[in-house]
Amino acid sequence: MQVFGNLATEPVRKESKSTGKAYWEYRLCESQRGVDTEPTWYTVRVMKDADPGLAKGDFIKVTGKLKTDFYLSREGKPTGTLLILAFEATKLARRAAVEETADGEGTEG
């Protein structure tokens, strides 16, 4: 699956408790147009040790496998998140560049 959206958190390097291998994790917000205007939130795990070179606010494309991650909340209620096990995460634009282009200020003329 492919998802296009804005990086909502800074990427954090983590290590698997079972294998000890490093990966990067962050939250992604995909906004929709049309009938369903509510944003969809994903947790993204890039299973590589190399720094993804992404920053909060970047508009990115993520390609990977969608899974659901179920757990108990702090209140003890069952809850879950959408999890993308990504094999590719590519920055398409910085958030400021997208906003400048939309406002017409970022163009030369």
Distance between the termini: 39 Å
Task: Give a quick account of the main beta sheet: strands, pairing sense, barrel closure.
Answer: 5 strands, mixed, barrel
- Number-wise, the strands total 6
CATH class designation: Mainly Beta
What is the domain total for the residues? 1
The dominant shape is globular
User: What's the helix-strand series?
Assistant: EEEEEEH
Radius of gyration: 16 Å
Unreliable stretches, pLDDT < 50, 5 or more residues? none
Helix count equals 1
- The assigned structural class equals mainly beta
The CATH superfamily name is Nucleic acid-binding proteins
Beta-strand content estimate: over 45%
CATH topology: OB fold (Dihydrolipoamide Acetyltransferase, E2P)
Q: What level of helicity do the residues show?
A: under 10%
Mean pLDDT: 85
* Overall CATH architecture: Beta Barrel
Describe the strand arrangement of the main beta sheet, using strand numbers. Answer: 1-3-4-6-5
